[in-house]
TrEMBL record, chain B:
Biased composition (Basic and acidic residues): 12-21
Region annotation (Disordered) ranges: 1-26
Keyword Ribonucleoprotein: no
Stated role: May be required for ribosome biogenesis.
MF GO annotations: rRNA primary transcript binding
Listed SUPFAM superfamilies: Class II aaRS ABD-related
One of the Pfam families matching this protein, by short name: Brix
Name by which UniProt lists this protein: Ribosome production factor 1
Entry keywords, A to Z: Ribosome biogenesis, rRNA processing
GO terms classed as biological process: maturation of 5.8S rRNA; maturation of LSU-rRNA
Length: 363, 273
């Protein structure tokens, strides 16, 4: 089990509550942490994040409001704690130092200390109807939140009273009606201050807190279905979006055009992530498949059937994705035997193609 | 040229007599079907767990009794109205209501309040029914089918008398993949659990090559091995277009499976149900 845990390239959370480690070379998945004999509904995984930058621990947030710590070295769940308060399932999980930050759909963000017994250190109210909370990877004390009728807000944990940046809605459309907001997913750009969000009204928006405008700097629409997942392509100029009908595309942020479409998904895409080094993007969704596409030539590289509906995924960058396993020795031995056999047989001359020659001469 | 080869083979077979090699199995599309990795293994624990905790669990645990609402798109024409009436005689505990131009999103909360478990909407185009939306009500999956080849009772030849009020048995054939399993469970949840064998009626959903054929028969055992069947009730074929995760929501729904013609129909031997 421990060896298998270390070999997993992708960690996926499913609606049945299982955490799956998937090895893409062998195309296998191993389940962790569920007992299939006890039917227990409502324990699906809502959020996944790395516990530490070394990627040796995973934080798994479940629908029954428990956060479990999973160690990839040992392949087991180490501890679990219940994080009550607020309504609804988790919409974001993050680790900050030794504390855990949880965010619930009703808007309550709590910072939980390492020790289980103590209560939450800090509480933030971010507005109701949240869909996503993410942590800025370069400045872990900054969080971004977005939701239904809840515009993008960037919070700083050191100043919890007010958001650092609160986005403003776009101007009224051509009928002079207010444009509704429903931010489904957001991502921070690693080096600059920019944030990109995708909405369920099929829009992709780019915000820049450093500019004096609070309105989005760039806005594009894509597709006919609500966009449910967003991932950054390393290089800062494009993003991959996934929709509720399985359309995935790479969108250029400089001009707002669609660069490439990634085909194959038949169900709503719930989780998307790009590999930081290789041009690969992994996606998981409600059609119970994990797909890895190559960003350069749009081809599907790996497709693994995982038997439950998938909700979130994490790529492990510590593994060497290109490494192929050594060919097993018995196969080589068999090849040698075969060669010896062929050498002992006499060569038979192939019959000359006389029939065709006759036809030609007949003309 | 082919006929000559066939004749030659038959002569050889007769000449050899008993020692003839067995006949080759002809290749059919079902034989050559591309192996689908989502085929459900009967012993699979994860799938069993998934099914024990999904939206149909209350039905399969016998906690709820199915109650079905059948309606149509707006302003149905005569054929569709008659089809709805016949469908309601086939499915026990079902009610037909006239759709007075009401939005489905407004009907659904009212249905849930009145304890309905399923909603069937038959879509009509040019005076014939051509689509079916089957929605399991308390936030269950919604399946959208294209319906073709609808035959009403009077168009079926050699039919029996009208279907009686007995609860029919249900046969679900050939739903092998995971998607097929979910759809099969959806159909099964339309009918009450205990069939009344006195009525000798059976409703069959037969899946072949991604088309689901619905037939309704009355059977009688003439002897131990011989059965006579009489077809009663309407007959139609369905093809799944999409399966949505929540109740019917065309704008913001999340789809579990959509049929994408350009991507999925590339091979003649690949089926999804």
């Amino acid at each position: 089990m421990a060896a298998a845990a270390r070999w997993s390239h992708v960690w996926v959370g499913a609606e049945t509550g299982a955490l799956k480690g998937v090895n893409l070379q062998k195309k296998e998945a191993t389940n962790y942490g569920t007992d299939w004999t006890v039917p227990r509904g409502g324990a699906g995984v809502c959020a996944l994040c790395w516990g530490e930058p070394t990627q040796s621990e995973l934080l798994v947030g479940c629908r029954d409001r428990s956060v479990k710590l999973f160690s990839t070295e040992k392949g087991k769940f180490r501890e679990s704690r219940v994080c009550p308060g607020g309504d609804g399932p988790f919409c974001g999980l993050a680790a900050y130092g030794s504390t855990i930050i949880t965010c619930v759909e009703s808007g309550l963000i709590k910072v939980w200390p390492e020790n289980e017994m103590e209560k939450a250190q800090l509480e933030l109210e971010a507005g109701a109807g949240l869909c996503r909370m993410r942590q800025d990877p370069t400045r872990p004390h900054r969080l971004g939140t977005g939701g239904k009728e809840n515009a993008l807000k960037v919070w700083d944990l050191q100043r919890p009273q007010e958001p650092v940046f609160r986005a403003k809605n776009v101007r009224n459309d051509w009928l002079d009606l207010r444009v509704p907001i429903w931010d489904r997913d957001l991502q921070f750009f690693p080096d600059s201050d920019k944030i990109v969000t995708c909405t369920a009204h099929r829009q992709v928006r780019l915000y820049d807190p450093r500019s004096p405008r609070r309105r989005p700097v760039l806005e594009t629409t894509f597709g006919e279905a609500p966009l449910t997942a967003l991932a950054l392509v390393p290089g800062e100029t494009s993003v991959v979006v996934g929709s509720a009908q399985g359309d995935m595309a790479v969108i250029d942020l400089r001009q707002g055009r669609v660069l490439k479409c990634l085909k194959g998904a038949a169900g709503g895409v719930r989780g998307l992530q790009c590999h930081p080094g290789l041009p690969l993007v992994a996606s998981c969704g409600l059609d119970r498949f994990l797909r890895v596409h190559h960003l350069g030539d749009k081809r599907l590289r790996h497709k693994v059937y995982l038997k439950s509906r998938l909700t979130c995924l994490l790529l492990s960058t510590q593994q060497d994705w290109e490494a192929k396993e050594e060919p097993p020795p018995p196969a080589e031995v068999k090849e040698e035997e075969g060669d010896a056999l062929w050498d002992t047989m006499e060569t038979v001359p192939t019959p000359a193609k006389r029939a065709k020659k006759r036809k030609i001469s007949g003309l | 040229e082919k006929l000559a080869a066939k004749k030659k083979r038959r002569k050889e077979r007769e000449a050899l007599g008993d020692r003839a090699p067995p006949k080759a199995i002809p290749k059919t599309i079902e034989n050559q079907r591309v192996y689908d990795e989502t085929t459900v293994d009967p012993n699979d624990e994860e799938v069993a767990f998934d099914e024990a905790t999904d939206e149909f669990a209350p039905y399969f645990n016998r906690q709820t009794v199915p109650k079905i609402l059948i309606t149509t798109s707006d302003r149905p024409r005569g054929r569709t109205v008659r089809f709805c009436e016949q469908l309601s005689t086939v499915i026990p505990n079902s009610h037909v209501y006239y759709r007075r131009g009401l939005a489905l999103k407004r009907i659904i909360p009212q249905c849930i309040a009145r304890d309905f478990t399923d909603l069937i909407v038959i879509n009509e185009d040019r005076k014939i029914p051509n689509g079916l939306v089957l929605s399991h009500l308390p936030d269950g999956p919604t399946a959208h089918f294209r319906m073709s080849s609808v035959r009403l009772r009077k168009e079926i030849k050699r039919k029996g008398k009208e279907p009686t009020e007995h609860v029919p048995e249900v046969i679900l054939n050939n739903f092998t993949t995971r998607l097929g399993h979910s759809i099969g469970r959806m159909f099964a949840s339309l009918f009450p659990h205990d069939p009344q064998f006195i009525g000798r009626q059976v409703a069959t959903f037969h899946n072949q090559r991604d088309y689901i054929f619905f037939r309704f028969h009355r059977y009688i055992f003439k002897s131990e091995k011989k059965v006579g069947i009489q077809e009663l009730g309407p007959r139609f074929t369905l093809k799944l277009r999409s399966l949505q995760k929540g109740t019917f929501d065309s704008k913001f729904g999340e789809y579990e499976w959509i049929h994408k013609r350009r991507e999925m129909d590339t091979s003649r031997r690949k089926f999804h149900l």
